[in-house]
Amino acid sequence: MADPVSPEDAPRDRRPLGLEIWIVLGLSLGASGVYALVSLIRKATLPGGLRDQTATLNSTQDDRQVFDFIYQVLSIGFALVPVALVLYLLSLDPVREPVTRRLGLDRARWRFDALSGFGLFALIGIPGLAFYFAGRALGITAEIIPSPDIEYWWTIPVLILAAVQNAVLEEVVVIGYLMTRLRQMSWGVPATIVAAAALRASYHLYQGVGPGIGNFAMGLVFGYWFHRTRRVMPLVVAHTLLDVVAFVGYLLFAESLGLK
């Protein structure tokens, strides 16, 4: 029996939707996936391979504090433009329900979203940490440096903003937008979930093969969650918590743990 299709996923003309997806991803995370793959190949072919390479997630943008701050904030702001774009495109669908409600980004079930987000954070975060250290031991993961090497009074607030930006961008575009569009193109549920997970894995490959595999697994869990609940907000909550712990935790405790 075919997978049931919700009204918001009702089939539409495949050609314009396919072109739209390519344009959106080419302007956002699809392009990041291509650059990440090139970065992976480059690092793997350097002396020492991935084991001796690093991946800095929130690097310093300028030696002068004021310009570093400006660049960081601008980067966060412009990274959210694709989110506005996909919400606008989805809002053009012939569906009466507001796009935020369609994607589960409203506040109607905020308690459910918060509790579910914390649960998903625990489900993904603890195994993810073990997976990172296993990848380092196997030499398939670069050393990840989540925080900048220069600290200012505003560093932690900006790292938290960066965590929120990452979560909103990835979950809205990869889960909310891409999965909705693929279902409208009559893709089956398993293929849709796997495609979204593969995209998530692709733009993390600059960190190594290990994080690529780990993020693919995370993508399968998040994709299935969205399929079952039609809510992106718990995924945003979980992803934000994961990145805040990684970014701020590294900044505060890396030296005492001997990580830098």
Radius of gyration: 19 Å
Main sheet overview: 2 strands, parallel
Main β-sheet, spatial strand arrangement: 1-2
- Per DSSP E runs of 2 or more residues, the count of β-strands stands at 2
List the uncertain runs.
Answer: none
Q: Which structural class matches the secondary elements?
A: mainly alpha
What is the succession of H and E elements? HHEHHHHEHHHH
Number of helices: 10
What would you call the shape? globular
Please give the share of residues in helix: 55-70%
Short summary:
The protein is mainly α.
Description:
The protein is mainly α and 260 residues long. The protein contains ten helices and two strands, in the order H-H-E-H-H-H-H-E-H-H-H-H. It has a two-stranded parallel ribbon with strand order 1-2. Helix 4 runs parallel beside helix 7.
Give me some keywords for this one.
single chain, 260 residues, mainly alpha, 2% strand
Summarize the topology:
Layout: H1 14-26, H2 29-44, E1 54-56, H3 65-79, H4 81-91, H5 99-102, H6 110-138, E2 143-145, H7 155-184, H8 189-202, H9 209-229, H10 233-253
Parallel strand pairs: 1-2
